[in-house]
Amino acid sequence: MTNLIDSCLLKIGFHQVFCENSNELLKQNILSVLNTNSTQNIFIGFSGGSMPQLLAPLLNELSNDLISNLLLFPVDERLVPLQNEESNAGSLLKELSTNKERFENKILKISEEPNLLEDGPKMASEFENKLRLMHPKLDDNGFPIFGIILINFKLKRNINYLTFLLPQKKRKKYFVIIKGHSRFLMKKLSHF
């Protein structure tokens, strides 16, 4: 599996960062985005898998001043209630445990309605509208600009998804953190 991942990474042009302490590298990059003295909301996108477990301890260390304009967006959220283990927002809130209340209003969440799957298109539209109400900075095409997007792509499908999603000319703006058997994509200070 490692060879498959490495060959896919090579094919799509990501830069890999091998780091003994990848948590420290991730923390430094999150701090660099949050320390911009911007009055505008700063969006950090995150995926599921082990990303909530990696991200939560770093968020717990941040001061209230640093998180004052931070907003967290689950980039591949599922149509499930927050209590479901498939919910990326719910997983992050669970991992934040004692600091959950500090971040409760900083994470974009899908509705808690019981019939999420039956109302899929409606829920997707509401989710998009919630993001727009947070007033993200937009690129020329009207898409939100994120400070960092963190995606766990241990799975081949996530690599294929990224290959499709990212234009060739923009791929060099991304780098990969290797942590154990997982790899994490970080995209810094540019739009997705």
UniProtKB/TrEMBL annotation:
Residues 26-150 form the Glucosamine/galactosamine-6-phosphate isomerase domain. GO terms for biological process: carbohydrate metabolic process. InterPro entries: Glc/Gal-6P_isomerase (IPR006148), NagB/RpiA_transferase-like (IPR037171). Pfam families: Glucosamine_iso. This is Glucosamine/galactosamine-6-phosphate isomerase domain-containing protein.
